[in-house]
Amino acid sequence: YGKNTIKFLRLHREGKKHFVKEVEVCTHLRLTSPQEYLEGNNSLVIPTDTIKNIVLVLAKKNGIPSLEQFAIDICNHFMTTFCQVAYVKTYVQEVPWQRLHENGVPHIHSFICVPDGIRFCEAEQCRNGPLVIFAGIKDLKLMKTTQSGFEGFYKNEHTTLPERHDRILCGELFCKWSYGECKDFDFDCIWNKIRECILEAFSGPPDCGEYSPSYQKTVNCIQMLVLSKVSQVQVIEVVLNNTFYNVLDMKNLGLTNDKEVLIPVEAPYGSCACTLGRKKFFEA
């Protein structure tokens, strides 16, 4: 049991310059005894309102140096403070505020919300067990207008999809990775590096791009690049929810349409998902 959707803004001041972290936190506990369920005995139950207040107090006292460190602080607090807690799991996601720039100059106290992917993390721990950290990015919308196709696929009497060698590749990406046991990582630096890998693998070189024969292959390219460049990542899950575009037939309007006006296909849409990890992690 626990408390969901604890939302707050943490404002940090360094002189006239301000820093913000707006987050949403979910914290769940499992107790050493199920007596509150079986017997109605609430003597071990930490009220969810108390859970919420603990999260807020930790934000006030410790700040949020990184999402992962804040999740670690929450887990550590419940494990070290309450002997009746057998398991704790905390999820933290961030509102994507970025510092506003005016003529290239960073503003000291103004910010803009930029929807270019939402950062999140999870920390979980069993008593007498390791603290395990996950992190990720979701709602990252990506598009490239060429260098993508889908050909040579299996066909039968139910197949109506035509082969395409030049199409728009567009989707909303969810990516979650595991660090394994918690270590003293620079979580901000790693998260930014993984985001760069995602964008690089999706788009290819900036001057020419890279051909994608399928959404599945693009997902694999993202995973392989992250695993090759970020040694701290043990397992990575990627889900790419696809948005398709159809070329609008404008003949009735007396116009030819060379893929200049396209209509998004809202539903149903496709989805590709894969989890890939290092062999040594799965063997362990």
TrEMBL record:
Lineage: Eukaryota, Metazoa, Chordata, Craniata, Vertebrata
EC number(s) per entry: 1.7.3.3
Pathway info: Purine metabolism; urate degradation; (S)-allantoin from urate: step 1/3
Matches recorded under NCBIfam families: urate_oxi (TIGR03383)
InterPro entries: Uricase (IPR002042)
Positions contributing to urate binding: 48-49, 150, 167, 216, 242
Positions of 5-hydroxyisourate binding: 48-49, 150, 167, 216, 242
Protein name: Uricase
Keywords, ordered alphabetically: Oxidoreductase, Peroxisome, Purine metabolism
Name of a matching Pfam family: Uricase
UniProt-annotated location(s): Peroxisome
Keyword Oxidoreductase: yes
GO BP terms: purine nucleobase catabolic process; urate catabolic process
Catalytically driven reaction(s): urate + O2 + H2O = 5-hydroxyisourate + H2O2
Chief location bin: other
Function: Catalyzes the oxidation of uric acid to 5-hydroxyisourate, which is further processed to form (S)-allantoin.
UniProt source species: Pachyramphus minor
Enzyme class, first EC level, given as a word: oxidoreductase
Chain residues that bind O2: 48, 242
Family: Belongs to the uricase family.
An annotated GO cellular component: peroxisome
